[in-house]
Every structure is written in C-alpha cells, then in structure tokens.
Amino acid sequence: MTGDVSATSGAARRGEFVLRTVEERGVRFVRLWFVDVLGLLKSFAIPVSELEQALEQGVGIDGSSLEGAARKREQDAIARLDPATFQVLPWRPESLVARMFCDVRRPDGEPHPGDSRHALRRVLAQAAELGYVFQVGGEFFLFAESGQGGEEPRPLDAGAYFDLTPLDVGSDFSQRTIEHVEQMGIPVKASHHEVAASQHELDLHHTDALSMADALITFRLAVKEVARELGVYATFMPKPLEGAAGSGMHLHCSLFEGERNAFFADGAEGPLSAKGSAFLAGVLAHAPELCAVTNQWVNSYKRLAAGFEAPEHVAWARRGDSSLVRVPSNRPGRESAARIELRSPDPACNPYLALALVLAAGLRGLERGYQLPAEANGVPADGLRRLPQDLREATDLFDCSELAREALGDAICDSVVANKRQEWEAYRRTVTEFERSRLLGLL
Amino acid sequence: MPDAWIYARDRELAGELARGLAELGFSPRQVSVNGTLLPGDDDGPAARRPDLVIVAAGAEEPSPDELLGRLSEHEDLCEVPLVAAVDPQHLSSALALGEAQELLVRPFAPGELAARVSRARRDVNGVAAGDVVRAGSLEVNVATYQVAIAGRPVSFTYMEYELLKFLVTHPRRVFSRESLLSAVWGYDYYGGERTVDVHVRRVRAKLGQEHAARIKTVRSVGYRFEL
C-alpha cells in the first residue's frame, strides 16, 4: 500500500461533481462556452452522454472561430472544459441546461494563441503574487424592439417617468435580472435606472479578474434572456441613441499584496499609495493605445465624443464625472475601498482582453515607476492628451502598441487589427443619414 | 469523494484499512508518520485537509502516544475526525488514545470500521456521511452534492458547494478565513482570504433572503453557520 492508493486530484473531484449533478438534476445538455477575439459568446451543446469523455479529453472545434468576423482558413483546436465553471442555467427551466467555460488549446495541448481567456490568465500569471480585484458597473438599454431595421429604436419609458405600464416592465425586468444573475453566482451590488430613458445599470460585486470576465459574458447573456422572456430587447451597444447618454462599463480596480490593499494610502498626501499612483500612471499613459479593445466598435466613439459624462481626455480626478479615471475618495481611511475607476470601456468590449490590457498597463507603470500627472481639476482640456476620436485612429495606435503585443501576443493583436480594419472599411463606404439630410437638397 | 489519511508503519494493516475505507466511499492515502504529518512530495501534494484520519498504532516509533498527541495539536488537523486502530497488546501502553474520537481493536469486522468512522465524524462534524443536513427549509445532501430550498433545487458551482457543505456540517463554530481556505480550498491555493469573502457572497446570493443570514459574518474573525 503506498500513498497513491487513489489520490483524487482537484480536477477529478470537480469532474465528479459535474457528472453527479448532471445525473441528479436530470440535465439534458451542457453548453460549452468560449469567446472569439471580439468577446462574442460562442456556444455549442453536447449531450450529457458525451460529457465524461469531454471532461477528460476536451472537444474538437474549428480554431478559426476565435478570429471573429475576419476568419481565415479552418484549423483544428480543442476546447478544454473548465469544470470549476459548471453551472446549471436558471432560465428556461422547462429543459434543464448547464454551461461550462472552455479554454481553447492547440492539438498538441498548448494554449491556443488566439484564446482570449488564456491571454488574461497569462497576464495574471506575470504577477501571480499580486491579487487584482475588479468591480464593474455595466449599463445597457431596454427597447421595445430590436431596431435592426436601421431606424432609431423606441425607448420603453420615453419621456414619462410615471408612465405606469413601461415602468412595470422596467421594475419587473430589474428584479428578474438580479435573480437570474445571482443564481449564476454573480452577486449584484446595486441596480438603478440610469440618466437616459430606458437605460439601466447593474453593479457587480468585486471579484478576481478571470471570474469577473466570465461573469460579464454571463451577465450580458442573462440580461438578454430576461428581456426576451418579457418580450423586450436589451442591448449593450455603446451609443444606441444620438440624443441620450451612451452605455459605459466602469471598471473599478484595486490591487492586493497578501491581505493588504496596495492602493491604500495610509496617511499619504494623495488619494493613492505610491504603488497605486504608479499603477494609475501606467493605465493613463497607455489608455489611448488600448481603446481598440476597450472601445472596439465604430459606435463606441460616438459615445466617447458626445459629452454626457463620457471621457474624451486622458486625465484623472477625485471628483467630477467625466474624467477618464476617477479615484474615489468617499471613504478615506477605509483600506478595502481604495481603488481606481476607469470610465472609458464600454460593455460591448471583450472583457478578457480589456481586463488583461488594463492590468498590463498598470503593471508597466509599477515596474517602470511611471510618474502620475497632476490631478485634472481645473486643468483646461486643451492641455490634455485626447483618446482616439474614431476606430481608425484607435486601430492604428493599437497596431503599434508594444504593450498590447507583449500582453496579448501577436496572434490576438493581428486578429483584432484585421477585424477592426474590416469594420472601418465597411463603415467608410456607408452613406449615412447625416450626408443625405445635409447634402441631398443642398447639392 | 471524502479524503481519508492513514498513518501506519505496518503495511498489511494499512492495506486492510485502505480497502475498508475505499468501500465506504473514501479516497484513502497513506501518509508518512515523520516530518510535517502532511503528505510528502513522494505522495503528491495534499489537495486539502482530509475528512478523516486513521492512526494505526503499534510498538514501533513514534509511539502511538506521541503520534496521536502531535496529530491532535497540529493546527490543520485538529478539527479532523480521528480514529485509532490498535492491536490488543498495545491497548494498555497507549495512554493518549483518548485524543481519538473512536477506537478500533484488531481484528475488526468490516461493519465495525464503518460504525467507528461514522461515529467519529458525527462527533466532530455534527453529521455523519450520507446524511442530508437540514437548516430550516434548506437541505444539503452531502452524498449527492445537491442543495435544495423548500424542495426546489439550487444550483451551485463546485467551490460554492464545497464551502456551503463545510459550513453546514460544522455549524455554530466560528472559522477564520484562513482556516476556511485550508479546509475548503486546500493547502496549494494562493488566492488569498478575499477568495473566501467572494465565495461567501456568492453562496449568500444563491441562498436567497431566508437562508443567506445563516452565514453570519463574525467581525474581524470570520464566518459562522447557524442551523
């Protein structure tokens, strides 16, 4: 008798949990999830009879599905199931379905260079002794219909705060969304109606970076599922209505060393510790070149251009709602609350890549001792760097970003650039309502 | 599958215990009686704290007294059910047998092993393996990994379930974040104590209003589960 009698590893335990739960609950299908380079959810179902083998060996997929709209030729890849993420889905209870996130591997077992989830893991591993904690507030709109015909969509509660019927849908919606999201293991900190008509925000409680990225993918799906149940349409499009505020995804980030919040300034002059200041300096210095990921659509720049408290310049402040980074100082002396809030990303980003790049930028600031510029209160805007003004400029900056290439690898960066150039070309050729309304009669 | 660690110099006895424990649904492993009292590198790293420890005491070194004393004082093992297995001739010389919850004298019948293990676990944990643990309308089936509230299943991820299971099977005792990390996540986990807070919040969110409050936060100490 030796020590290996039947030493059950953690992975085998998790696998057993999955198989037993599927059996006990009568789950019929398991959906395997991964995202492409644009952060769009890819899902394929396997019957439970295939599950045991899939847990052991993974499932073959076409690796070019990671490349977004700019797909090249087919290539073999393997989706490795992450049983720690096994979760029965709370919606559509009439036929029980569960999901599991996957890591995409090459046939030789190495991580696939185009896998966003792995890219985030790799950045996290670079500073494994540090713990990053993210808290996210995601905004979205509810509309009566999808508006995919091209016309401007109709807000549910347009202009009438006390309009009874739409408000019913709204509050029913909030309650049901929170229930679903929490049943998926994503605790909700707060939910409220945003400034624009039909706009909602859900604030998700802080957690580690990988769980938060998984949670954001889950959250986007849960919101759309609930909307569908209620016969309305939810969108994370950054700027669906020209005359209303866009939807942002505010990233609150703090950094822990052991149990200490490394951003906390105990008695220091500024709102952040020396480490926090250097991290923030890194995020600010690299923010423009990362916009092609944090704000990845043509439409993202309509939100950043239009005021409505969206950031346009590289600046930080303790107060005020339109700076790129806010350093909350509402609870001085409370260590756990020390953090920075990055306000540029929108909820239509790829959360794995966005979190990976924000971390990489902050880490760069820490490693190289970047100096934090002065707080922007009262500084005239024309003395500040601007964020890119459109997707073309953002893509050019990203393409040349040594930081992005180091953090994400060339495969992902080239794929992002190919997708974004393709989108820009299609946009550039489009004759818009703007041109017709101004020029058709005039010329 | 629960882990059982076997401390024994006598290979024949160790084998007998391992087979018996495997039949009871444990994953048994033999652990060196020297050094740290935790599985050494040769055995692969310890994934986490075991659910049961069996000490097969004989005439060899270290003495059963010394081994049982060290085990019961070890900070990671002090809350683990402990069963001592001895030969009749060593009964009188083993003064520290009282540290163990249950005593097994060779030769023993298979049914006796099951009964002693079950009693030791009930002593320490308040529940026996295979039981459904209830707290009001909350039911945790520790044999099937399933949780239900008022008969309706609630879906947990693996780590959420493991945390809830540990708390409900150790009610009314306060656990520090550090001890929960070592008991639930295992020794090789580096995620830090915030991991515990994050998972407690997730478990509370899934338990819903009626039961969330059963997991009490004990300020600047840790957490406690109320039945």
Which class of the largest domain in chain B in CATH terms?
Alpha Beta
Helix content of chain A: 25-40%
- The structural class of chain A is alpha+beta
CATH topology of the largest domain in chain B: Rossmann fold
**Helix- and strand-based class of chain B?**
alpha/beta
How do the helices and strands line up, and which of them pair or pack?
The complex is a heterodimer of chains A (443) and B (227).
Chain A: H1 10-25, E1 29-35, E2 41-47, H2 51-57, E3 59-62, E4 76-81, E5 87-88, E6 97-105, H3 116-126, E7 130-143, H4 164-183, E8 188-193, E9 199-208, H5 209-229, E10 233-235, E11 249-257, E12 260-261, H6 274-294, H7 300-305, E13 316-317, E14 325-326, E15 340-342, H8 351-368, H9 391-399, H10 402-408, H11 410-428, H12 433-439
Parallel strand pairs in A: 1-6, 13-14
Antiparallel strand pairs in A: 1-2, 3-4, 4-6, 5-6, 7-9, 7-10, 7-11, 8-9, 11-12, 11-15, 14-15
Helix pairs in contact in A: 3-8, 4-5, 5-8, 6-8, 6-9, 8-10, 9-11, 10-11
Chain B: E1 3-8, H1 11-23, E2 27-30, E3 52-57, H2 64-73, E4 82-86, E5 102-105, H3 110-125, E6 132-135, E7 138-141, E8 146-149, E9 152-154, H4 158-169, E10 174-176, H5 177-185, H6 194-212, E11 215-218, E12 222-225
Parallel strand pairs in B: 1-2, 1-3, 3-4, 4-5
Antiparallel strand pairs in B: 6-7, 7-8, 8-9, 10-12, 11-12
